[in-house]
Amino acid sequence: MFKSIALFCLSFLLLSCGLRTYPTFYTLSADGPSPSGGGIGVGVGPVILAEYVDRENLVIQTSPNKLELAENHLWAGDLDDSIARVLSINLGRRLKTGNIRTYPWQSDGEIDYQIAVDIREFVAGNDGYAHIDASWRIYALPSRKLVASATFIDKEAIQEEEYESFVSAQSRLLSRLSAEISNRIK
User: Fold this and answer.
1) What is the pLDDT of residues 85-126, one digit of tens each?
2) pTM score of the predicted model
3) Which residues form the signal peptide (predicted)?
4) Which end of the chain has less neighbouring CB within 10 Å, N or C?
């Protein structure tokens, strides 16, 4: 009797451990490796996210007024920091400079331009697209004079119905946002 109870408990434990789902972590990707060397100084940040986007889970918009968090599909770090990292690498590559900083930086001494970004939407839609709605501003330093500003609204097709494809689409959106910003600095 004791042997069959122990065998049942062991079987139950093994089965329940096998059913546990573990989180998958995702990170946004830049267009290539970080640039090196000197060049114009660019500071990226702050990057401000809308509260409903600033989550550890991936956010899926299932209808115009409904959002769902992807259970067990998490960002590998803070989303605002990840966006700033990708933007800074992409901008450095486009502007051919390794003199890139992300907010907060120690001093403005080596920075010629600051790029501030507000992201109001950064989600996967139920329409098969990743969406971004962001405004950005370029300030000349040290005067902090506004050089350029714009709103960037775009969408990118999600190639496959999987979360990694959604994150790849978001990375491509950030690449296009970087291209728009860098064209105003050149």
Assistant:
1) 999 999 999 999 999 999 999 988 889 999 999 999 999 998
2) 0.88
3) 1-21
4) N
- Count of other CB atoms within 10 angstroms of residue 85: 22
Q: How far apart are CA 83 and CA 171, in angstroms?
A: 9
Token pair recorded at residue 118: 């507000």
Domain count, the chain: 1
Q: Answer whether residue 35 is part of any domain.
A: yes
Which residues make Cβ contacts (< 8 Å) with residue 102, sequence separation at least 6?
A: 43, 44, 45, 81, 84, 85, 88
- Residues 136-150 pLDDT 10s: 999 999 999 999 999
Asked if the structure places residue 9 within a domain, the reply is no
Domain range enclosing 66: 24-185
Closest C-alpha to 155, from 179, 180, 174, 178: 174
**CA neighbours within 13 Å on the CB side: how many for 131?**
15
Residue 106 lies in a domain: yes
Whichever domain contains 116, its CATH number is 3.40.50.10610
Q: Say if 2 falls within a structural domain.
A: no
Task: Quote the tokens at residue 169.
Answer: 């689409």
Q: Exposure of 117 by Cβ count < 10 A (0-12 exposed, 13-18 middle, 19+ buried)? A: buried
